[in-house]
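Q: Please design a sequence for this.
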């Protein structure tokens, strides 16, 4: 799968408050595919296939699970975002003759609403691959919840299982970094800004520090180009806001103000045909549990 420009979406007045379901679908239909090259690079390096039993921590709407399953892996995903998880269920579980609210047979996929500890492996075989594909390294404190999640997931895996952590690359290699600074600036302008809401550049050892806190042994790393490409400005704004990285800014000001300033920050990346293109690099760290 290669990065593609996202088709144009027509929505209601963008100044209105967007409900959780709409935002989750924006993520699934616009933004999530931008990370597909990262998923595929990891799966190719690890030779994910029929012998893989994978648990995806924070699986979102399930694109990484879908790619792994297409390679023959048995996949389980867990997430606390019920709207995204419902979309993952549409992609991976629901089908003719199946209960949309139930679990798929182990040969296909299993989705768990909750933290990793709730995703005990089906059957006797433990997981041999744990993935955390929500990239860290673009906001203060965005790794704080990852180490505890890993600590609850590792006991579900076989001894020596592979664990993959992901993060943003150096800001000078990420054209989206200046756009994310808009979120920090707007959030910091209000007393409603909370600790952990501010943008910060990704640091070289972010992933290694998380691995150390979770008791994991690093065993290689890599970088992957993940351009963010959008069919138009509307798709770009909606896709970026669906990440949740702008939530503090919206609370501090309002959605209309955030959309306006994000669009201004995106202006240098608009091409003559109206598409928006931002080269980015993401990093992954392979560890041994």
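A: Design:
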């Amino acid at each position: 799968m290669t990065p593609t420009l996202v088709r144009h979406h027509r929505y209601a007045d963008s100044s209105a408050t967007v409900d959780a379901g709409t935002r989750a679908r924006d993520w699934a239909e616009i933004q999530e595919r931008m990370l597909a090259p990262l998923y595929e690079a990891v799966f190719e390096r690890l030779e994910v296939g029929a012998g893989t039993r994978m648990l995806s921590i924070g699986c979102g709407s399930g694109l990484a699970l879908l790619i792994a399953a297409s390679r023959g892996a048995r996949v389980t995903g867990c997430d606390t975002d019920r709207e995204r998880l419902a979309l993952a269920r549409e992609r991976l579980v629901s089908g003719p003759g199946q209960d949309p609210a139930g679990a798929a047979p182990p040969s296909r996929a299993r989705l768990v609403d909750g933290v990793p500890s709730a995703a005990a492996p089906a059957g006797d075989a433990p997981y041999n691959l744990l993935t955390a594909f929500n990239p860290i390294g673009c906001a203060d404190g965005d790794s704080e919840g990852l180490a505890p999640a890993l600590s609850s997931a590792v006991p579900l895996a076989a001894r020596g299982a592979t664990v993959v952590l992901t993060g943003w690359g150096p800001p000078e290699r990420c054209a989206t970094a200046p756009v994310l600074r808009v979120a920090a600036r707007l959030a910091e302008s209000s007393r409603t800004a909370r600790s952990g809401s501010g943008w910060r550049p990704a640091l070289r050892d972010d992933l290694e520090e998380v691995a150390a806190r979770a008791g994991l042994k690093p065993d290689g790393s890599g970088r992957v180009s993940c351009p963010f490409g959008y069919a138009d400005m509307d798709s770009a704004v909606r896709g970026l806001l669906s990440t949740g990285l702008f939530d503090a800014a919206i609370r501090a000001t309002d959605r209309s103000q955030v959309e306006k300033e994000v669009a201004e920050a995106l202006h240098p990346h608009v091409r003559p045909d109206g598409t928006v293109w931002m080269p980015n690099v993401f990093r992954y760290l392979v560890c041994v549990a």
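Q: Thanks. Anything notable?
A: The radius of gyration is 19 Å. The chain is about 35% helix and 20% strand.
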